[in-house]
## 1
Amino acid sequence: MAYLTINNLHKRFADHVVVHDFNMNIEQGEFVTFLGPSGCGKTTVLRMIAGFETPTSGHIRVGGEDITHQSPQKRGIGMVFQSYALFPNMNVTQNIGFGLKMRKCDSAEIARKVAEVIKLVELSGKENHYPHELSGGQRQRVALARALVVEPRILLLDEPLSALDARIRKNLREQIRDIQRRLGLTTIFVTHDQEEALTMSDRIFVMNQGRVEQEGRAEMVYTEPATEFVARFMGNYNLLGAADSQRLLGLSINGHLAIRPESIHVLDAHSQQADTLAGTIRQHQLLGNIIRYQIESAGVTLQVDRLNRTASDLMPAGTEVRLQISRDDMREVR
Amino acid sequence: MAIAIGTIYFLLPLIATFEFSLKMNRDGYSFEAYKVVLSDPGFQATFGYSTLMAVLTIIVGILLVVPTAYWIQLKLPRLRPLVEFITLLPLVIPAIVIVFGYLKLYNSSAWLPLTGNDRATDFLLMCSYVTLALPYLYRSIDAGLRAIDVRTLTEAAESLGASWPSILLQVIFPNVKSAILSGAFLTFAVVIGEFTMASLLGRPAFGPYLQLIGANRAYEPSALAIIAFLVTWASMGLIQVFARNARPARKTA
Amino acid sequence: MPTSPDSVTHCPPEAGQARPRLAPSALNWLGVVPFFLFALLFLILPTATLMIGAFQDANGHFTLGNIAKLFDDSILSAYWISFEVSAASALGGGLIGLLLALAAIQGGLPGWIRPTLMTFSGVASNFAGIPLSFAFLSTLGRMGLVTVLLRNYADFDLYSTGFSILSFIGLTLTYLYFQIPLMVLIVTPAIDGLRAEWREACESLGGSSLAYWWHIALPILWPSILGSTLLLFANAFGAVATAYALTGSSLNIVPILLYAQIRGDVLHDQNLGYALALGMIVVTGLSNAGYIWLRSRAERGRE
């Protein structure tokens, strides 16, 4: 049986359903991410696991024990907040030691454990600083240390990186993942950033409007989106409606056809290969290692990515080309 | 529970005062006390005088504070702590001490005999009211200016070719109108019943009139208290109205 | 980021290196001249002249005699009663105001309570002075509604207990009427500054509600609470109108003593009056300085 199981979780605020029939199983030591746009219910699920919100119905179990209606104090679940939520009246040591103090540990033990975790999150030298004297990245590491030091059964991270700037974000992201692996900590991470989700997670739950759209291993969710929403949210998929895919590819489908921009091959206009489409380059964008072309074919504009090898590779607008799309790279989504 | 006790504590005196004010006629409740008060020429004269004083105070106060606060934010931000400190002084120095200082400094034999004749004393009283209003006016106007990023707005207006008068009147003023009005109504509430300054400068204002009635009559004071309460309530209510109207306006600004 | 050329120099003209830019700099200063002139004429000079007067005798010679006379029994007792009334109304107002604000903001009460309380506090904190004393006379005076109701229906004579609206207790009760709402108004921003996540972080770390208040909320609020109480103290210490209209000259508190002195009723010693005023400034100044210091402490670390 899984370590954390959630069954038929519902949450309603007034007449507004925020979480609809949420189910999941997480193994011990797994790093799971809830990914979705703001307002999709991911934070609400997290807060129900932490005990800050009461589910309208459903059950949450940890290690077989039903904690659905337990008070947050008794759950032994650590939480890191987007806004850090450090206590401004306490310095780094006091903030980190607070949870141990609440558990009535003796002061020698508190000092030892706090020193240990300060080393773990690389905050040595900042022990006596107050939160307002720290940078955003340092504050978030204090918050992480404060949650870790009490050895929680599960660690919850609520968009912990979104208030930080890009470079620190990447750094801290690796650090969090590294610590999580070393401690073998069961972790749930909430984010709206698909890159963050892809780089950090073992498993991703893509959520939309209170429902799970798709769950799966990180690489799977990216390459095999199950729905139109996931395809749009995860990458720059070309999404063709039924009429377009009939006209362009002669395929009759229900829903949409999703084609990733890097899976379309561009051949020169005289190519004799079978199963290719005629296209005209309309414009391009330079994205560094990639050039993204807008190519029109049979009245449909497709995004096509090519590696930016040399400057002479660039094809100007108006160039006639032929496009080759493998059947395997087309996915029918709901 | 705390709310319930608080409600009783704050409503009881008002109810008692109102009840008392209705008892002037021995044969039951009536608005006789209000009739007597409102038709008293003393009431009309002093209330009119204080209203005029309040309006003058507001105008002079705004003319003094708005350009100063604007200028400090735009050109002399280093002076801000000093100006803020000065505007808080009237909360530190009791009104009675300030007016005592006026009497010493501007007495009829002094270099600037502002207590020499009635017009000059009226001017001095108005200045004393502006002083009293400084903390309220400055704080509300400064907060209003801070909320709109005066410097960027001014620079934008300058680069679009606006002259100084039009920057102040068409760009800055409309955006802090509600802050100015809040400060103005608060000033009105403070000035209308002010006693200490008016009494010691010997001017016929509403405050000293209230005191006189209170010392010599039985029922009229209650009626006056209710009237004063309604005036205060109206001023505060208007502040709320303008504060509420200001919010959506600020979002679109 | 000053970008317009004449905003670069903030230095006062007397600073040497500002010489070359004297013209724009002097212009900048011209903008604040009216304000400083006004403050000088109607705030600073009048106060300063009193403070100097406190150290002069009738002929303008330096003396500490006026200050020494402040320690006469009758004057000292006036300061003491003033201190007691101000302290009692500040402590009472501070505590009750704090509880009211907490209940309205954090107590999970219906949403309309808070705006109502705020509006009402705005009104009540400005409903001071003479009308307020009338209201309390109508309530707790000898013919007041509560006094009469108690006598007629509960057979309880309030005044037989030694209570009087003209006394220490009466004055304190009256002052509370504007002190409590004032406390609500000035402490509310501090309570709003308590973030919901702090409580949640505390809970998820195993802290009880009591632990939250004791270790987190109160230490954070403490400077604001203490500072606001000091402000209430200064507010009551300088108040004249309410006390004068309520008690006439029967209660010997400093503002009334000074009022009577200025009206020429007692003392007949101008310079002693200046010393009285100086004493008031010292007391209210100290408590306001405490308020400002504590407020800046409270704001630190909450950016």
## 2
Amino acid sequence: MSTNEFYSLRVNGRTHQVQDSWIGESLLYVLRERLGLPGTKGACEQGECGSCTVLMDDAAVCSCLVMAATAIHSEIVTVEGITTETTLTDVQQNFVNEGAVQCGFCTPGLIVAVHHLLEKNPNPTELEVKEAISGNICRCTGYGRVFAAVEATIRSRNSEK
Amino acid sequence: MTVIVAKELSTALAALREHADARLIQGGTDLMVEINFNHVKPTTMVSLRDVQSLRTIRQDSPGIMSIGSGVPYSVLEGEPVLSAIPALAQASRTVGSPQIRATGSLGGNLGTCSPAGDTLPVMFALDAMIHLSTLDSQRVVSIHDFMTGVKRNVRQHDEIITAIDFPIVQGWQGYSKVGVRNAMVISVASACLVADHKHADVRLALGSVGPTIIRCREAEAWLKSSQDLTAGQSISLDIAHEFGRRAADESSPIDDHRSTAQYRRHAISVLASRMLRKAYQ
Amino acid sequence: MAPSSTVTKSRDVLGTNALRPDGAQKVQGSFEFTSDMHAENMLWGATLRSPHPYARIVSIDTSAALALSGVKCVITASDVPGKLTYGLISSDQPVFAHEFVRYMGEPVAAVAADHPETCRRALALIKVAYEVLKPLTNPEDAISGSHDPIHPDGNVIRHQRIIRGDQAATGAVVVEGEYVIGMQDQAFLGLEAALAIPDPDGLGVHLHVATQWLHEDLSQISACLGLPAEKVRLTLGGVGGAFGAREDISLQVHCCLLALKTGRPIKMQYSREESFFGHVHRHPASIFMRHHADLNGKIIKIDARFVFDGGAYTSTSPAVLINGITHTQGPYKCDNATVDGYAVRTNNPPCGAMRGFGVVQACFAHESQMDKIAAAVGKSPVEIRLINAMATGDPLITGQIMESVAPVARCITETDAIPLPPSLDVNADELELPGGSGLTSSQSNIVRGIGWGVSMKNLMYSEGFDDFATARCTLKDGVASLKFATSEVGQGFVTLAPQIARSVLGVDDVLIEPIDTEIGSAGSTSASRQTWMSGGAVDGACRLVRERLFHHVGKIHNIDPLRLVIEGTDVVDQMGTFRISVADASDGIEISETFEHHHRKTDELDEHGQGNCHTAFAFVAHRAVVDVDPDLGLVKVVQIATAQDVGRVLNPLSAIGQLEGGIAQGLGLAVMEEIVMKDGKVRNPSFTDYLLPTALDAPDVVAVMIEEYEPQAPLGAKGIGEPPCISVTPAIVAAIRNATGKAIERIPVRPQDICL
């Protein structure tokens, strides 16, 4: 079943060659184990935790449920590509400042999901925030500090306008 | 290993013809779980992700909305579906997580045909019609004939589900699903109720309480014979409860790790009577 | 390696919202978790597990697996060179099943291969012939002796009584109940992972692993490998949460064995499904309790019987049992008690440590009982708890005197003072109602309820165990380096330790050296103990360094070192005008000191369950407000109000995170989280069917920290990790009872328990 298939993926604005892949490899596996992008985390392999969230053609998706070889025409953005700056984004900084990070395993997925939410909806209600991240399980924080981080970001973006 | 990422429907159909072992993948939200858990080991994959013709919503005739099999749930949650087929929008919004809804589609729900598939009761309540194509033929199958059992349907190997036709019905409609979490939960029991004011009837379809989606024909017939179902009526508590009881009688749930048959039956009676009252508020 | 060295520049001393030093890496995805690690020439390891809860192994044939291309080795019990078993308290768990498998998921063999997929195929090619036996799944059968021993050590792991006071005492009011607690999973997000790198000479191994207790792992691993302890080195890999599930060995020995056998680095990483089989869970329990009280509601006597299902192997069951039964009374005065407790062996999955450690189970029972007493004597839940509230100096049912600060009444009254949430809005979005996105209810279907839970929790280890912690502080050129083996699992010790150093030493720059076994043990990151224990060790080491710095400065500047103090970042003569910055004072010198912090001695319980077995205690009150859809049995927790006895807040941001996170886990146990068993088989080993609270299930948490300095604690601060998840569960269940009038005695509460 292993063949010397070559295909390329567009990830974080760069074209990556994927070699010697096995059929069935998820995008999550390929990002982590073949492309050297381990920021995306896997914790359930069935789309029930959101740790592996990436942007694919501007939609937030679970990379564990994307067959990598089917994503050859797509633009993929991982947590590593969420900003081209070396400094943290406002979302990232607020996650740190507001205590939304404990063990940090769910954090990359949440960072991608929250960036995506605020891109699509700059002024979400509290309930819209909760629904938007309801696919991202966090076991440490109970979400309170995560909500605080999102609120702080919305507040600061609005005050800059 | 072969992965064929089709951009045109014809490419995908030709690939199915050519490869007897080919499996279709759309969003991947069902199949990839099977692969990740080592339950299936496909050898040839035909991806429909980039077939744009499957991602359209059309309303060619006034009474029908035709939804491409690849339109993601995240699109179905909003307009134009929300106004035209609100039960479908509601069902779509309860599928998995936002991430799942960004890639999952009606084609996947139909291809998998799980009794817990959230949009299937909506199709059953609305008598949706399923369009299937091969390289050289097309057919249209009623949803009632399409799903034949747990994860079983009449799709042939070389066929692709292209679109689903939903009648646009005048009257209240809704979808409710019971799960013990407020989001991202597989249905323990679900129901879609459609009030069709033009035909003065009510249709009810149930999910997760039988090997297929169950359309409650007897409860529907009883209701029509007991109650004027045109617009502007109101439903008494007694009628609603009896309707719920009859709907529960038509369900055939099982005990499993998610719930018990007894609870599922009870939940159906509650959902059916609540939705009926709402439909004629 | 993962918890990397970091330099933080700020005056983040104790009491401030110091930020996590690993925060930036974690939000960028660059923090290295153990599962992110790679090594040159690395192979993957995987485990074959038993599909049966109880069976005799007739034969194992690995030849087909070995013949598969890419497979480098297959190992079974016969390849274990050292001790064949391991365990935290009793070494009764086989590295690989030998002769018998005793639970579904027990490891039988392991493979090493070039790709995870090759591993999966190889596992499928290992042929194990089993003679399936009738499993022992009912704990009462283990006690009664009606089932043959399933292990040479017998079916009862531990039996302990507590006999206290007047055994014939009775009260005018008698209430009782039989309470059942389901099996909860820790469900940390970062799955079990390890990378074992064999020494070039093949005589030792370096294991990078996500664990709670490096040194305990080390001793168990080296024994099983048959290697001297110094030939095995452990470094903490990045840990994605723990909650008790990483206290026992899981893949450690397997990974090292494969590395030593192949001579190549081995990476192992569990899937979520395997994780459910690969670590211990919270003990399911059944608890009978009968309270005698007077007409005023004051407790006179408690009778209780506890049965903890320990599953197939001992793990920490004996300690969990003791924790459970010694917390029978909860945070209430009680002079007379008769308690009988069993931890038993069955063919269910092994159970061990999880946040709350036996007290969660006891608390659900005693808090349910408190509400029954309240109802019987016509008092409110708050009144009945205040009437009975324990205080410092009270004797416990073990005879131990409560020496900890015990602000039980204050926890209750301050929680009571927190405003209730507004009543349910008539226009409330359906997403906020029970049933959430399922759109099952309208506002008119909903009933609101309020419930209470108050708890006591022991801190640190008990029964004579000396769980000390070690830390080293090195001061050089104004920079402090801290070295310890304390597992950072997400709780924030890496934030706290530099805060301590800054406060004590007046430095700004604090470096954390790699967390590994190159220093003495820190004990486990469990039992709410690291702030107290490792915090005490860091504090002690920093104080020793400070003393030497004062001597150094005193000698050079001819000042009595006793006159010197740290003020901000300076060394200051408090009786004169001399002042020098710590940076200048330490320029060109290096002062290094190591300190071991030991807590006070504790004793084992005697046959009557009497003895000073616990080290210290903390208290908390929870008030839950829930909305219930009684017809469908669905629940939404609206608000949790809480006041927690914390001693002293060292980092408010970390503290609130512990409280909110613990509350979410307690909520999970109350209404959704359960490993469903049937005939010894796990039915739901996945996140599709083992449900964790989502953002839409999270309640509003309103928290008050009760700061009454704990003189026994090195920093005045109590451990705060476990209390949040203990009494919130009974509070939620009480609120459901309050809303529905249903007598619910089982957790998690299932919809059918409410509406059928």
## 3
Amino acid sequence: MRRNNDALVGAVVVIVVVALVAAIAWVKQSDLGGTQRDVIAHFRDVGNTRVGNAVVIRGVVGGRIDAIELAPDGWVDVRMKLDPAARLPSEPVVLLSESSLFGDWQATIVERRSLPSDAALREAIDDASHDGRALPGASLPGIGKLTAVAGQIAGDVASVASRVGTAFDDSAARELRTSIRDVSELSSTLRRVARDHASDLDTLSGQLRVAVAALQRASRSVETTSGRIDSATNSDEARRLVQNFAASADELRHAGAQVRDLAERLRTTQARRSPPTCAPTRRSTSRCGSSDLRESRTRIRTFADACRGAHS
Amino acid sequence: MGIAVRAVESIGSKTLRALRATGPNARFVGDVLASGRDARTWLGQTMTQMRRLGVDSLPIAAFIALFTGIVLALLASYSFTGAVPLYFVGTLVEKTVTLELAPVLTGLALAGRVGANIAAELGTMRVTEQVDALETLGYDPVSFLVLPRVVAGVAMFPVVVGAAMLVAMVAGGTTSVLLLHLSSPEFLKGVRLFFQVFDVEYGLVKSASFGAAVTLAGSACGLRAGGGAVGVGRAATSTVVYSAICILVLDALWAVTWLLGREAAP
């Protein structure tokens, strides 16, 4: 019974311990047979890379990071255990980068000439190439670093926005609102003025049209008149008219002479028949009569002038 | 005023009773440690106890672990769907099983099975005066009865918990493959993502402390049993209660002292 107990307990303990150790070794991908080969890479900074992270060659996991050690002169050595079948590319370099959003990193072995065209990255690789025994390596910025930069940018934008907010306070907003309202009123006024002016222009153009029509009519009547004048000229009516006017003027001149003569006779007659009223002397009598004659002459001259004006 | 004074008196009496119990319990633990010198007495009994406490407890531990692994995988997939890659099911199952569920659930199960068994056995020996007979024969009852059980508990609890870890992981992986349509490499990727040997060490060390607590509580309650079958039954009940309390307090203690401030990722 006792031996039975011993065997059973021993078997259970051994089985459980062996199973546990085997499971741990399997999960940890331990190199029990020592078949994997070591590759060392040289870095300035390994980011968030940890022991156990995958080593990827051409997109296939070809090993694990076995150790990360500080090296002299500010370098970090990363020792990787690669599968025996994994073949490195020519001129291999190692890039450390995040493999997912959940913080796990990986080491990718690539050819030097297929590096991304990033000057800083190439410079870091060139810088790490001095050690012949180790592969040159560089770490790409992690999502955390990128997020930090993005956060910094967001902070700057927020700062600018807050400054704008400080400058653009309530009073500024009120003023802007008032300005907008003023501009709106101004534009409506301009619209009204433009509308009024348009109606004035319509009226003006209408009147102009009427004036043009009147002018056309006038020009037509002038044309008619000129035609008539031409026809009149052609038929010597105008000459006859002028001759008539000249004859009338002669007649009027003649009539004027007759009137003058008549007035002379009248004065003579008057001086004979009526005593002088102003003075008994001959001189005064002749003076009184001459004033009357002068008045009559003036009237006749006025009449003659009027006739002449009418004639001209 | 009178009620307040009575409440304060009640708190004081309970505190004193608890402190009074601390002394005998500490003395009992001291006696157990001191009896370790009598190796010829306890060593012969240890293997029998290891079988009874450990090997015979494997089925119940495996049963609990099997369903724990299944439920954990399903819970993880339910929680992660649409937000987190499904291979994190493996991560969650591994971390939860190794760090917490396998040790604690197995410890609680063994507290009922092993602790009650020890209390009932030793209590019966006490009420039937077999313990007195041993003393009369010149045997140290602590060395002959208690220490083999404590050693067996400390040694076999980690074994049982280790087996439970394996069963739970296999159950979780099988569930992921069969029910969640997750490929086994993906599940394994999740397991490997944040796996540390420390996880297993932590669970095993914790379970060893649980084994010590359960066996000590069972032995103490059993040896103090009195009053016939009723006393034995009360001792068994007390053992289960005290064991469960000890397991949970120790769990928190280990977490605070060993996990706090430690990095999760390798």
